[in-house]
Design a protein that fits this description.
Elements: E1 2-3, E2 9-11, E3 14-16, E4 22-25, H1 45-52, H2 55-61, E5 65-67, E6 73-81, E7 87-95, E8 103-105, E9 108-120, E10 127-137, H3 140-143, E11 150-158, E12 161-170, E13 177-186, E14 198-204, E15 214-217, E16 222-224, E17 230-237, E18 243-251, E19 256-264, E20 270-277, E21 285-291, E22 299-306, H4 316-322, H5 329-337, H6 343-353, H7 364-379, H8 381-384, H9 393-401, E23 406-409, E24 416-423, E25 428-435, E26 442-443, H10 445-461
Parallel strand pairs: 4-11, 16-22
Antiparallel strand pairs: 1-4, 2-3, 5-6, 6-7, 7-11, 8-9, 9-10, 9-12, 12-13, 14-15, 14-17, 17-20, 18-19, 18-21, 21-22, 23-24, 24-25, 25-26
Helix pairs in contact: 5-6, 7-9
Length: 466
């Protein structure tokens, strides 16, 4: 067993945590291959809400190894040719800081987590590895980051076969853990073959098959529309001479968006290609990366292009609908009127101009807004009907102003139902009314006028740091 050293890497403003890359040797059965499930794009704003914060389900549908709360994580496997007949299997695990339990330690905030990985085959001893890790950040704000903050990586030398893979991430200080299980086929990568596309943050091509790969995986494969580029790594093995292998990307409707030819010189045991898809290339939604001629032998991997790395929103029409209470109407109108090729750049301008804290990778105003949408949609779903709880009067007020400081409601037995919300910050009271037996409550005309006044103040404040 050999161990590579930890190191920290920087991607944009995001500090990725310690990379632990250990190669574990395994000693062999057959089964069905793991199928990658297609991720259909939600068709309406209401359907989008179901995906907005359910990133675990979305990642699973695009072929990732993912688990939900309490310690949500996303994993991705990458396969390269190993020593002898083995396959070098890299497992990358992505976490965000807010899923970890940080505690004050001197001037910093520290969190601990434990990752356990196991590869099972019938009638064989499992390949098991576990490691404890520590994450340290300088500010409380960093502990609340919802984007990818930590990448844990592990390497295994495995015999080509079908494995049942179990991944567990634990909080060593409590009983909290998340676990997921998946069936994976570890391929044989022989002479004249290539790897599937591998999404990476960093990669240095290997000079020989015995070298440990200097690769930092991008486990989520989610990029921000108009801002991030995708880095892709592909290895080829033992080509006899000059060989060109096609690479292309297609959107979820099968439209081709990018093509190139990967040129291998030949006469070498291993050759690696690292290339980048520029930020303006990927279209919103599911992006399928393909290596090889079209057909059953094509090797594929799916990435996701969203408006943010923190939430799954991949459609402009749905974005405009969901931002109806956000304000910034002039900027949104300009984005709505823009030509498709102009929208990515305008979206990044919108993002930066509405970001209350540019020092972080998140847009806290948008994160807070979409979190309130999710809460309102759930809390007021009974009166929302087909339009959703977030489209009710109470949903609109909650999304705009947040949690009220005081709620008063008429006692049972009255024909009319009244609910009063009080906001100390704005020095206002808002009254909702409705008939008993009809669940939908509406702002009274006077409160609707008062809310219009207060909404201007709230929208002015949303772009300032908490």
């Amino acid at each position: 067993m050999s161990v590579l050293s930890h190191h920290l890497v920087q991607r944009h403003r995001a500090l990725l945590g310690a990379l632990a890359a250990t190669v574990v040797f395994a000693g062999c059965a057959a089964g069905p291959p793991r199928n990658e499930l297609a991720a259909g794009q939600p068709g309406t704003a209401e359907e989008t809400l179901n995906e907005l914060f359910n990133l675990t389900g979305l990642y699973q549908r695009i072929g990732r190894i993912a688990a939900g709360p309490p310690i949500s994580f996303v994993g991705q496997l990458a396969f390269l040719a190993g020593r002898g007949d083995s396959t070098l299997t890299l497992m990358g695990i992505s976490l965000d800081n807010r899923t970890l339990a940080f505690q004050r330690s001197g001037r910093d905030f520290v969190a601990r987590y434990r990752v356990e990985m196991a590869f099972h085959r019938p009638d064989q001893l499992p390949v098991f590895y576990a490691r404890n890790e520590v994450v340290s950040v300088a500010t409380f704000q960093e502990t609340q980051r919802s984007d990818e903050s930590v990448v844990f990586q592990q390497g295994f030398l495995l015999e080509p076969d079908v494995y049942r893979v179990t991944v567990t991430v634990r909080d060593p200080g409590s009983a909290s853990f998340s676990q997921t299980e998946s069936t994976v086929r570890v391929p044989r990568l022989g002479v004249g073959s290539t790897t599937a596309p591998i999404l990476v943050y960093q990669a240095t091509p290997r000079k020989n098959i015995w070298a440990e790969p200097q690769i930092l995986l991008n486990p989520r494969g989610m990029v921000a529309h108009g801002d991030d580029s995708l880095s892709v790594y592909v290895e080829g093995y033992g080509f006899g001479g000059q060989t060109e292998v096609p690479f292309r990307t297609t959107d979820e409707f099968g439209n081709e968006s990018h093509t190139l030819a990967l040129s291998f010189k030949g006469g070498m045991a291993v050759e690696g290609h690292l290339f980048h898809l520029p930020a303006e290339t990927p279209a919103l939604g599911r992006l399928v990366l393909q290596v090889g001629d079209p057909g059953d032998s094509t090797k594929r991997l799916t990435a996701l292009v969203s408006f943010s790395r923190s939430w799954a929103l991949t459609n402009y029409d749905n974005l405009f609908s969901l931002l109806r209470y956000f304000g910034q109407d002039d900027r949104l109108d300009a984005l709505r009127r823009a030509a498709p090729e102009e929208r990515p750049a305008l979206w990044r301008v919108f993002w930066k101009e509405t970001d209350p804290n540019p020092s972080t990778a998140d847009n806290e105003a948008l994160d807070r807004y979409f979190t309130r949408i999710a809460i309102a949609n759930q809390r007021f779903r009974d009166e929302g009907g087909a339009t959703g709880g977030w489209r009710t009067d109470r949903g609109e007020v909650y999304i705009t102003l947040g949690e009220p400081d005081l709620i008063q409601e008429t006692p049972p037995g009255n024909d009319q139902r009244y609910v009063l919300w009080e906001y100390n910050t704005y020095g206002t009271q808002l009254l909702f009314e409705g008939n008993i037996g009809f669940s939908r409550l509406r702002l009274t005309p006077a409160s609707r006028a008062e809310f219009a006044r207060v909404r201007v103040l709230a929208q002015q404040r949303q772009n300032t740091p908490d």
